[in-house]
TrEMBL record:
Pfam families: HTH_28 (PF13518), HTH_Tnp_1 (PF01527). This is Transposase. Residues 79-114 form the Insertion element IS150 protein InsJ-like helix-turn-helix domain. GO terms for biological process: DNA transposition. It comes from Salisediminibacterium beveridgei.
Amino acid sequence: MGQEGLKRKHRKTVYTTETKEEMIHEVFNGQTQEEVAQACGLSQDSLLSSWIKAYTGGKKSTGKGRVNRMKGRKTTLEERLEIVDFALRNDRDHQSAAEKYNVSYQQVYSWVQK
């Protein structure tokens, strides 16, 4: 950030849920966390790391700094197969599958890996 990085900020930067998800998807698409953090002007790549952890843990950001935990539910084998099939047909879009079937991101991710 050069000399700009040393200047004192007078207020906290707030990122929208959409902006956070865009950054997260850039990491999922092959960029490093450091590259994305630097390109987006984040002061710490650990901030991006915490967003990724919340996102992959099935938590949904409210856009106000708070995170709501998406709860999973009990599923049958047939439901799991349907969810995995949906995720695979949609380029391993675990988040969409989790939202559509009302299960956690981590559950979908785990089932697809298995």
